[in-house]
Amino acid sequence: MLQFGEINEESSIEGYFCSKKKVLFLYSYNIYDTNTLVMLDKHEDTLFEKGFLHYFSNLRDTSTRHLLFLFLVSHICVVTNASSSFDLNYIQLFKTLDSVRTKLQGSVAEVLKTVPGLPKDWLTLGRLCSPRVLFYFEQRPPVLDENLKSLQHLMEDQIYRLLRKCRVITNVCTNSLFAIPCNQEFVFFKPMQQDRFTFLLELLNDTFEIGNESPSDFHEFLSQHITLAQTEGFSDNVGRHVGPSIFVLPPARVWFDAAFKLFDFFTNSPANGLKGFQLLHSILDVEGQFSEARCLKVLPLALAAYQENLPSHYSSQYHENKKTQAKALLSSHGRGPAVQKFLGRLDTECDRFWRNGRRMCEFPSIIGNPCIQPVHRVHAEENGDSKLPVLPHMSGVRYVSACSCGRRQANREDPYDVEYANYGFYRLIEEECCGRLRHVTFPIFKPSSDHFEPANLKGASKSLHFARDVEKLITGTEDLSLGPDENEFPALSVDHLSQVAADDHEESQTSLGKGEATEAVDEDNIMEIAGTHELPAVSTWDFSTTEYLPCMVHVNSPPGILPRYSSWSLVCLGSSSLYSHNAGLSDQPGFLAGSGFLLPWDIPVRLQHNESSGLDGRRTHNLGYSGKGKRGKQGQHEFTVKIFIGVEYECPRGHRFMSSSPGRILKATGAGLVKDSAQLITQNDVPLYLPCPCPYNRGGKALIAQLMRLHVVTPKAAVHVTIDPKVRPAPPPCPEFVTGFTEPIQLSPSSYWILRFPYVYEDENQIYTHPKENARAAQHGYLLKGTCGVMELANE
């Protein structure tokens, strides 16, 4: 048994060789066979993916190539008909095979040249001979046995006239695909009903003389042609002036060598390669040709739909949306298997059009908005296409933000770097507003020369020295912080408190405004001050003048390295009288109605009057203040220190509001009465982000407001209000960001101070911005408790 191609393929050729009679039988399994066609259901997935027409077109192309191969390597070809009538579709198939054979004759000759020992006539003609075709009908016509022979002759005459009329056969058989014998029968009707397998089995048994003493009629019908081929050869030319026919009987070894090479040539040659195979594909794939023509007509319309109303440059998302619209147009008007091919072409053309100068930069800002500029470079020395323009990133999104002091609002561009977000914008707006106010200078990097560089923080461990100093500082000021324990404040010295003890009550009433009632001091909540507490000394660092910190300062930053700019701002608006508790923040724009008020925070203290000898033998007096000037028990004075505090939130649209307690928005009464106090604000962690109660929001989704300012109005007393903010802008392991000072910042008495927080936070690894989900905004980041504290005023 001989096999051409894989057994499980839809088109293959099987061969059976009889060495005794020197006859080789070849049988083609192809798509023209009904039994093979019904087996396509096992390729359901492929048919669903590629479509039946596309899949069937490729199978038909392969099957036709195998048929042409049989006509080139055979002497006799038996064509079967499934019914008792001649299938006219064979005429078109024969004409196709003849046209392709003529186109491929030169290529076939080149393949045959590689076969050693090949007869010259075979090389010249490109085939063994003009094969003789016999027609076998699988169904017997409904006639009597004695009339079957005459019907057979009538069928031969009819087939001959049809083939002659259609020019499938000619007088010179060398010029035709095949020949028909002139004086021999070439039509055979199957004598009884039997399946094809039984028919082939009987034919092989008759040929090999196995188990059957009386040969069948078809064996006798076929044997006469085989015998003539083995003895004299075929000479089927018709006419008076025709030359001899070429008929080659090669050795078996030469035939097998040539047959395998020709089979590989016909099977593996691409359809778009040689002209003969291109012609074959165009003739067979009529549906594909129509589909190609239809899609080729619709493709310009789809491209025009993509290019309609396009801006000068646009984003990848807009590009994909336009491609989807163009593909929908092509899919709705295109037909056939070529639609998928042209969808790919449309995708390529749209991508080429977009990339040819219409791409948007789309570099995300810190907030996440894409840059709307054309593709560009940010710096001239940047690596990349030198033809790209040098432009800054710009998302087109603008926010409304107030300056450091909060008295002026302005539009700010969507930031693309931390320096502009935390420093550059406020520096620009300060020139027109708060530039003349008193500012606290935060620790920043000061280079000693023009050659400096960012510090390498990869693998930098936490500074134990810095952590230890911070721990000492926190421990030392723990009693002064506004934590949950109010009964352990240190004593304030008599020398500092006695000078304004008499008029403390008057100043406190003035700051509260007229009509504010004086509250009685609860004996249980009075804090006793009995001695002087000294702050622990913090070691002085030697700051680097050649390396700077490329991010913001946090508790894990290496010691001795400072940032190039400060992300914080602390400004003094002026005297504490600028704030009226009845009127609220009248000069601060953008506050929501009823939210522009600070929260009062009363600190009742009790001062014990002691006399003792110091280390130098001098007497030390401890005396305290009382806003009410009330005399307590013998040797004691009771005082109330009143501070006004406000934590301000600001949303991207410029809406501002104060918080009455962690997670709640301050709402004053219509008369401006604030019922809340700052107790909960000072004793708890304050959320860094809250949903903004804007009067209107897009799609009903609330914007996220961020804690941006801390308002502190200090009392006119011999005490310092201190601030030491620590911000954790994201859940752990996010570090705690600090100002860079090694000690709490002391605010001057009887003043109005505003601490502005950074707009964004950055450590060595990432940038922290507001959360994306409004529902969990309040739990995302915090201003840690212990931000505000009180300490005695130092002696001058």
Helices and strands in order, then pairings?
Elements: E1 2-4, E2 12-18, E3 23-29, H1 34-37, H2 44-50, H3 52-73, E4 76-81, H4 89-103, H5 105-112, H6 120-125, E5 132-137, H7 145-165, E6 187-189, H8 196-208, H9 217-231, H10 252-268, H11 275-284, H12 286-307, H13 316-333, H14 338-355, E7 398-402, E8 409-413, H15 418-430, E9 438-439, E10 453-454, H16 464-476, H17 494-497, H18 504-512, E11 527-529, E12 547-548, E13 569-575, E14 599-608, E15 611-613, E16 619-621, E17 630-631, E18 636-650, E19 656-661, E20 664-665, H19 679-683, E21 686-687, E22 689-691, E23 704-713, E24 719-723, E25 727-728, E26 745-747, E27 751-756, E28 761-762, E29 767-768, E30 782-783, E31 788-792
Parallel strand pairs: 4-5, 5-6, 10-12, 11-14
Antiparallel strand pairs: 1-2, 2-3, 7-8, 9-13, 13-27, 14-18, 15-16, 17-18, 18-19, 18-23, 19-20, 21-30, 22-23, 23-27, 24-26, 24-31, 25-30, 28-29
Query: Would you identify the regions where 5 or more consecutive residues have pLDDT less than 50?
Result: 459-540, 608-632
Q: How does the major sheet shape up?
A: 11 strands, mixed
Radius of gyration: 50 Å
Silhouette = rod-shaped
Q: So how many helices? A: 19
Ends apart, CA distance between termini = 117 Å
Strand content: 15-25%
Average predicted confidence as pLDDT: 80
**Structural classification:** alpha+beta
Q: Give the beta-strand count.
A: 31
Helix content, binned percent: 25-40%
Name the assembly state.
single chain
